[in-house]
């Protein structure tokens, strides 16, 4: 059985945190468009250069940029048994493009988990996040600190604060989420594919809720 999963949720909802745990648990890849774009930006590729100003300002990058990235990634062998999309789709046109790609590849239907977290908690989480550019792990200075300050537990990399985890870019990301991404909840609900999960609570408790929601059918 394929596990073709989407994690929906606002910035700071815990998509990356949970996608990494689900990927390890199910043995399928985490496909994070944010991580892919940040890698392209770091490497200075044409795509990275195109995306950079949008990302730093907290705006979505144009649909055609990310759709191409995801289409190529989903066609790789390791995604044949399933995948966890984290941060994609983010707009209705992206969701429609994904439907077309999955049909073309002959994949099973999607399962969509909407991780729900109130705004005050999102702001608290984003304000103290630390990220590992090497392996994608995320920490929080208070809520989920690494064992050794500034060092990734998983790979020993140096932790950084993301360029878009600044107050102005955070506000813009939340606006983009409400305007362009939140309508996807309805899109997938109407298709009968969406399940809401309470994203507040201990990391492992939230993980348990997601696994339970997946086990109980969409
Ligand atoms: P992206 O990287 O996807 O950022 P985002 O959506 O703003 O989401 P975040 O990564 O901030 O939140 P998250 O839900 O992953 O939270 P996390 O697990 O880290 O995108 C960045 C940019 O790239 C976009 O702004 C856009 O420019 C571009 N982009 C990417 N995809 C795109 C697309 N499809 N289309 C167009 N543009 C695109 O957790 C947050 C913090 O909370 C961490 O510190 C974590 O340790 C902590 N935490 C998590 N869970 C818990 C918990 N249960 N309890 C306590 N703390 C917790
Ligand atoms: Mg993330
Ligand atoms: Zn790391």
Provide key terms for this protein.
single chain; 218 residues; alpha/beta; Rossmann fold; two-stranded antiparallel sheet; 7 strands; binds BIS(adenosine)-5'-pentaphosphate; binds magnesium ion; binds zinc ion
CATH architecture of the domain at 3-118 and 181-215: 3-Layer(aba) Sandwich
What is the CATH homologous superfamily assignment of the domain at 3-118 and 181-215? P-loop containing nucleotide triphosphate hydrolases
* Largest sheet, strands/sense/barrel: 5 strands, parallel
- List ligands, each type once: BIS(adenosine)-5'-pentaphosphate, magnesium ion, zinc ion
Quote the distance from N terminus to C terminus. 15 Å
Compute the number of strand runs: 7
Write structural notes for this entry.
With 218 residues, the chain is an alpha/beta fold. It has a domain at 3-118 and 181-215: Rossmann fold (3-Layer(aba) Sandwich). It contains 9 helices and 7 strands. It has a 5-stranded parallel sheet with strand order 2-3-1-4-7, with helices on both faces. The chain has a two-stranded antiparallel sheet with strand order 5-6. The chain is globular. Bound molecules: BIS(adenosine)-5'-pentaphosphate, magnesium ion and zinc ion (ZN). The site of zinc ion (ZN) has 8 residues, from loops.
């Amino acid at each position: 059985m394929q596990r073709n999963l989407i994690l929906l949720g606002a910035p700071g909802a815990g998509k990356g945190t949970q996608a990494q745990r689900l990927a390890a648990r199910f043995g399928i890849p985490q496909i994070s468009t944010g991580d892919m774009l940040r890698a392209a930006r770091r490497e200075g590729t044409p795509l990275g250069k195109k995306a950079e100003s949008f990302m730093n300002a907290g705006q979505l990058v144009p649909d055609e940029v990310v759709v191409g990235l995801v289409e190529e990634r989903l066609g790789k062998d390791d995604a044949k048994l399933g995948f966890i999309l984290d941060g994609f789709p983010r707009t209705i046109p992206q969701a429609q493009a994904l439907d077309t790609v999955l049909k073309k590849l002959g994949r099973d239907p999607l399962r969509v988990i909407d991780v729900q977290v109130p705004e005050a908690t999102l702001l608290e989480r984003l304000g103290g996040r630390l990220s590992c550019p090497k392996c994608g792990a995320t920490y929080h200075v208070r809520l989920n600190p690494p064992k050794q300050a500034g060092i990734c537990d998983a790979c020993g990399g140096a932790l950084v604060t993301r360029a878009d985890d600044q107050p102005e870019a955070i506000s813009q990301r939340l606006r983009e989420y409400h305007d362009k991404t939140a309508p996807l909840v309805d899109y997938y609900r109407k298709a009968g594919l969406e399940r809401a999960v309470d994203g507040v609570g201990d990391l492992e408790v939230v993980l348990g809720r997601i696994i339970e929601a997946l086990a109980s059918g969409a």
